[in-house]
Every structure is written in structure tokens, then in C-alpha cells.
Amino acid sequence: MSRIGVVTVTMVGSNICTNHIVAEALKNNVSGKHPEIVSIALSFDRYKSAIVAKNWNKVADLILETINLLQLAGCDFIIIPSNTPHYAFEKVHLKSSLPVFNLLEITAEECAKKGFKQVVIMGTKATMEDGLYTKALTLKNIKLVIPDVTTRELMDTLIMDYIIPSRPNHLLQNKIKSAILDLNCDAAILGCTELSEVYNSKTLEMPIIDTTRLLATTALKYSIKLDNSRI
Q: Quick one: pLDDT at residue 193?
């Protein structure tokens, strides 16, 4: 049975992703069989300080440190259920001893498949302001819309100060929702794994790309393919 290695940056995002892998695997499977999953979480403060400083080399080193441990645990491939650390993806991809899924490419491919031409990015300030998704979406001829500075500040606060520590703030969520709807985009990319805790297509009242669950579904499909190739 294949074994998925999960680089856990935040517990919230990682838990959503791994729970979805198991739930989807068991949906039409009464045997209880699902891919084996190994998740390793370095202390979040190590990631947070590097991300705030936009020290992507340091972020890459933390991810690679985790991948080395996951390799020792016998994992077949790696997923990183966190968007912002993908600024470090190229270095991780070059130096990783195991295959690593690229969440940016997976998301852009899904947007194209659904026929979206203009999407708004929701996420941390770093994800929204520094063009994390620009290249991947441009290659698919999709226009990326970035919320205004006030909305970016509110969203970063919602993620860092409320969702990650599991503190609800419905007033803040609704302010952000109104600002996003005013942009009149085809869809919203939930470009932060934790955002799916508070937003979905129903609550946001528009189509979304849930990057966390999309990554989970992609990992599950690959895991099944890997298992079938070993029969």
C-alpha cells in the first residue's frame, strides 16, 4: 500500500487535507482501506518567522528537513498542504529525495478545466501580494485578481490571528466576503489551506477552488495509481 508523506506547516490545514484523503478513500469502500499517511509537523514558529521575513530559502530548508524524516518513514511521495510555503517549491523540488506535488500547478490546471477566465486569490498577505499564483495561472491564460490592501490586511489577520488558533470571527469573515464578491470574478481560489475552515462555495456565494481538498483528491488518485502499478 502506498504511503503519503505530509509536510505539515499548520495543523489546521494538514488535518483538513488528510481527513479528506481518508474520507474520499472510504466513500465507496466498505473494507476500510485507505492510503497510509505519515505527517510530520515542525513547530509552526519556525515557519512563521521565516515566512514573515520572506526567507524562502529557510522555508525550503524546513520543508526538506521534514521530507528527509518522511523518507525514513517509508513515504512514496510528498504533499505540502500549505500555499505560502510554495514560494520555496523550486528549491524543494530540486533537492527533495522524493517526488513532491506542486499545489500551484494543480490549482491552475483545475481553474482551466472549469473554464475560469478571471479568479481572485484569497490567502496570506505574502500569497496575495508577491505573485505566488501568477506564473501558474498566466500559463493557463487566466487573469489573477488581487484584493485591495484593506482586504488583504483583513484576510491576513483572519488567517493568522483567528483561523489558525481556532478562534471564530464571523464579522471579519463577512467583511472579507463582501469585498471579494464586489470584484465580480468567475471564482475564488482559497489560496490558504485554512480558509476552507470558514469558506466554501455556499458561504462565499460564488464558485471556489478549495486548494486543500484539491490537493487531497490529487494525492489520493496518485496513490491509487501507484498501488495499481504494483499489482
A: 83
